[in-house]
């Protein structure tokens, strides 16, 4: 059930991507767009492999270069994915026999960094205005994890607010598929999200989201609430439903 739903959603996402003009931008931008879209399309065809790749990428920044292949093997080769077992065994045997672990680690780390640059736009919101505009839609995100303290949560909230203020206003007559969006990691801006205390969690999350939504409405920018992990699904879903039936956000 879960896999089928994921496959359906992925197909829908890819369908929307095909409506975007891939011929806009410089020759380099078009090449990057082509390579990225083909890679993503390939990954979406294999949901188990896609999941393990994302898990591996999540842990990669904490690894020493010499250990990258060892963890790559754990996440990609040792787990059940769509890659045939004989192929995984053969590749690992070849790498081990020729003592290529470190070289392969370097290559994997380099490839991930190259792809990361396709998605990490800048290290400062203030640099956004210097980036050449593109006809393609963008969903902006602030890199970060779950906030562990109110101080961290306030800092993430400040960064989202700063990003909203810097982004240009979106024309009211724009195609909704081309709208600028911001993806909000709810656990990054509010620490008091507890599945066992759902009503209070929803209350806290609504309060912290309201200033962001007000800024977004003024600019015509869309807001995506990152579902993150399953434990927070109910809280985030109900928060969105409760907020968006209020007259202010209609």
TrEMBL record:
Pfam families according to UniProt: Pro_dh, PutA_N
InterPro entries membership: FAD-linked_oxidoreductase-like (IPR029041), Proline_DH_dom (IPR002872), PutA_N (IPR041514)
Alphabetized GO MF terms: proline dehydrogenase activity
Keywords for this protein: Membrane, Oxidoreductase, Transmembrane, Transmembrane helix
TM segment ranges: 91-112
Superkingdom: Bacteria
SUPFAM superfamilies noted in UniProt: FAD-linked oxidoreductase
Protein known as: Proline dehydrogenase domain protein
Residue span, Proline dehydrogenase domain: 139-244
Coiled coil: none
UniProt-listed Gene3D superfamilies: 3.20.20.220
Domain Proline utilization A N-terminal: 20-119
Transmembrane helix in keyword set: yes
Gene Ontology biological process terms from the UniProt entry: L-proline catabolic process
């Amino acid at each position: 059930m879960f896999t089928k739903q994921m496959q359906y959603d992925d197909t829908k996402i890819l369908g929307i991507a095909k409506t975007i003009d891939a011929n806009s931008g410089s020759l380099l931008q078009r090449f990057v767009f082509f390579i990225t879209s083909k890679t993503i399309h390939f990954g979406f065809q294999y949901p188990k492999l896609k999941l393990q790749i994302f898990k591996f990428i999540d842990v990669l920044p904490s690894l020493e270069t010499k250990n990258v292949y060892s963890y790559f093997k754990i996440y990609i080769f040792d787990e059940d994915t769509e890659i045939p077992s004989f192929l995984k065994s053969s590749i690992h045997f070849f790498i081990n026999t020729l003592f290529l672990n470190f070289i392969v680690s370097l290559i994997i780390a380099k490839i991930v960094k190259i792809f990361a640059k396709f998605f990490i736009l800048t290290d400062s919101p203030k640099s956004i205005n210097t980036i050449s505009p593109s006809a393609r839609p963008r969903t902006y995100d602030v890199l970060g994890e779950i906030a562990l303290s109110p101080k961290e949560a306030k800092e993430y909230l400040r960064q989202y607010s700063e990003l909203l203020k810097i982004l240009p206003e979106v024309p009211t007559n724009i195609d909704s598929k081309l709208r600028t969006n911001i993806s909000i990691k709810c656990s990054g801006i509010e620490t008091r999200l507890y599945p066992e205390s759902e009503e209070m969690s929803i209350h806290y999350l609504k309060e912290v989201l309201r200033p962001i939504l007000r800024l977004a409405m003024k600019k015509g920018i869309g807001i995506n609430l990152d579902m993150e992990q399953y434990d927070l699904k109910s809280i985030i879903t109900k928060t969105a439903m409760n907020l968006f039936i209020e007259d202010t956000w209609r």
